[in-house]
Amino acid sequence: MSIFDSLVGQSEVVGRLKGAVEAAKSGKSTQEMVHTWLFVGPAGSGRSNAAVAFAAALLCSDSGCGKCLDCQTVLAGTHIDVERFNPSGLSIKAEEVRELISRSAWSPSVGPWRIVIIEDADRLTETAANALLKTIEEPETHTLWLLCAPTLTDVSVTIRSRCRHLQLRTPSTLSVEEFLIKNTGVDSKNAAFAARVSQGHIGRARFIATNQGAQSRRREILSLIFSLKDISSCFKAAARLLDIAQEQAESENSERDSKQLQQLQDAYQGTGRGMISGGAKAIKDLEKEQKSSTTRAIRDNIDGALLDIASLYRDILLIQSGSQEILNIDFRQEITELAKASPAKRSIEQIEALLEARANLGRNSAPLSTLESLFCALK
Question: With a threshold of 0.85, does the pTM exceed it?
Fold first, then answer.
């Protein structure tokens, strides 16, 4: 077993990471090991998993056995020398980066490195990026920075020019299917279905394969497309999709939010007037952070739903082109009927409308109005 086994279809990246681990442990000065890395790849390719695996391998006495205490604590996010920053809001603010920089200067407690992993580094504000730049230009000798982003251009040129780049790719459907069978215990039929409809997204494939609720939501979301008959139905479908995204975000976050609030109240010894000084402000800040996290979760859920809908129009276009190799075989009849009802040019326009809606959501447009406009364009 190796810590890198979780990186599906990334043999080239794994080879480079293993070479860097070997160079770091040899103590020799080589070009294979640097202090700042940038992991890029499409959503679901495993870029953050690659960064975590790299961190574990560097701290493991056996270069990433996957079984020792160091490996297990890094994977669990509890290793004292590894800080994994996953932004809960829509952006990474300068104050948050400055706090990371301050802690990154601490000496390692148990290992040779102090490692900071920033997921979604593309969310860095300009001020935050400038603050980080000063640190990675002259990093501490014992500190490693591992940044993750969808593409190189999503990170400012001044930062990416000072990083070692690693490009991950979307794994094949077969690779994802084999991974699910081996690591989740689902049967081959369920694994094949999840691998196919997730389109190479490891996280979504695992979630769909192991969660009946996710499969039901996916079916309901795709069914909305077949209900688009007039303006009224488009508006109803948009409202329902937003409701689904909100319900999913609340179900995922409610337990965590309640636990965080309870822990904070315990720390400040009660609620209301019984709290010690500073408690009210701390709770207000927490509620603000949780609200931002929920907003991001809703937008992420909508984005995932739009990807599913895009796969539907992809299938329609394939049918129109004479192919039968579609992703959503559980909707084959409905897809075939839509394919016969319009030309291929119309399907391309619908896919472009979906891409534009995703881009608008990325620019923080209002979700409901964006979805209403989109569904009217798809009608």
Answer: no
